[in-house]
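Notebook entry, structure prediction.
Reason for the run: the old model in the group folder had no record of what sequence produced it. Starting over properly, with the input documented here first.
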Amino acid sequence: MEYRRLGASGLHVPELGFGTGTFGGRGPLFSAWGDTDADQARRMVDIALDAGVTLFDTADVYSEGASEAILGAAVKDRRDQVLISTKAGLPTGEGPGEAGSSRAYLTEAVETALRRLDTDYIDLFKLHAFDAGTPVEETVDVLDDLVRAGKLRYIGVSNFAGWQLMKSLAAADRHGLTRYAAHQVYYSLIGRDYEWELMPLAQDQGVGALVWSPLGWGRLTGKIRRGRPLPEGSRLHDTAQWGPPVEDERLYDVVDVLDEISAQTGKTVPQIAVNWLLRRPTVASVLIGARNERQLRDNLGAIGWELTAEQVAALDAASAKTPPYPYYPYERQEGFARLNPPLVASGTGG
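New structure, fully documented this time:
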């Protein structure tokens, strides 16, 4: 397992983290993801730690808080061996004070997370979404207070637009407050929008990417192929409406290349898809999830080897998509491109 610095911070995270969205199984979305109970979760954590996976990610909305509680129980006697990452900000109820990034809400959200996780501190706390109704100065100020109080070690965001992240970083810098070290983002071979603006911003500002849904919302499992119906057991039957969209033909083009590389390497389609992500600029950790031990062990096989330059080029070509304005001139026109050389993977996530 390789350990990388999280952006420009001093925190080192494993190149693979474990996403616990499958813990709990409550609600229409998360019950479709999985229903891992406390005993199963402890076994999953055992396997992950044996492989060097020390980062475990959850959120208050995962299974109505059950994911946090189950994770807390699973790591209770080995808290010093793990990094706990959680998120808050999405609605947890219908009331006006049950969502967002206000001082009142985040103060209570952190206390609730600490109780569920049965811990005194959270290694990495992230805003799950941007709250347009709360001034960014209020948000970064309360998070800085929580860091200084020892309840949070590092802070970050998830699902922010470029201007939202940059505005927040600028506010923190202006007032001498704790900066966001991480951005938890959707990024996959069939979802490369992260590269257009957020990746250059992350490299410039020292924000490490934690990748969620590296298999494209379950589409890069190796079970979905051109000319075949959606497999009967696929969770996409129940969750496709919540996930990132992708054109069918583009998906099939990518899967065709993944199949070819799988035949060449003996690696599975998911392993290849994750390995490609691990070589991308700014990526600090790819969060893998699993419903069972077999899936977890297969995902762990994504590390310890590398795709060839030719295989990477084939995947790049199959998954490429013309970005919207104002990004495409910098990719397609020589004069623009000369002013903005391509980003290079550093291997540190920074």
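Summary: The longest helix spans residues 248-265.
The old model has been moved to the deprecated folder.
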